[in-house]
Amino acid sequence: MISIKGLAKKYDSVLAVDGLDLEIPEGELFGFLGPNGAGKTTTIKILVGLLKPTSGAISIDGIDLYQEPLEVKKIIGYIPDRPFLYDKLTGWEYLDLVAGLYSMDMDVAHDRAEKFLAFFDLETFADELIEGYSHGMKQKLIISGALIHNPKVLIVDEPLVGLDPKGARQVKQLFQDLCAEGITIFMSTHSLGVAEAMCHRVGIIQKGKIVAMGTVDQLRSQAKHEHGDLEDVFLKLTGDSDFAPLLDSLRGSQRK
Ligand code: ATP
Q1: Which of 17, 33, 43, 80 has the smallest C-beta neighbourhood within 10 Å, fewest atoms?
Q2: How far apart are CA 17 and CA 174, in angstroms?
Q3: Is pLDDT of 249 > 70?
Q4: Residue 66 backbone class (left: φ over 0; alpha: ψ -120 to 50; beta: rest)
């Protein structure tokens, strides 16, 4: 469903994405993990058409992103890490606006909007201005907007940040249900627990390259951490060495 071939992105002297190859089948919940600055957000912005890559090819549901960008945008939903919302709209007006941008049939759109607002317990706030929403409520509205046009692919940058435990559980359940219906989800997360609990497969990116990919169990055996949790595996695969100089210098300063 998502095919990425030889993707690279250079910002001046920084090679943020360095020859990425990924094939993600329909219905998979794919977790994209990596340390800060690894290239996750850059990859996601390229996937949704917000950034141009330096080289490489992307197709979604067999449609080439660069030849038919609008066709691809019709079938994807995007949840950014720093979402933008119009504060002076109500929640309902925002969903109406998004549905209009996708040229949806308004009866279908209103039906889906009502379902999402009910699912996220936002019905009583639907006619309130977004400026009065909490961070978590805004997140839930963004997720509803990203799904209103029934996309085939959902691309998500850090979906659970700022949600309370109930909201996080609702989103986890929703994403798993969507995948069971055949929607493909590409999700970047810093939360190893989330990746472990939700994702069918995980790819770990470091310095713009995939350094490990597979199910959490496969990654465990790759890292020879048969009994470790994903955090141990992640640190082993991305090299605990990032921490070693700091730990050494702290030990040194204790000795003085
Ligand atoms: P984080 O987990 O911290 O959000 P990330 O994995 O999403 O990080 P990116 O934001 O994709 O990483 O950044 C990858 C590299 O590209 C970093 O070295 C970053 O400094 C650099 N970078 C990102 N955006 C730009 C930009 N607009 N101009 C120049 N360099 C950039």
Answers
A1: 80
A2: 30
A3: no
A4: alpha
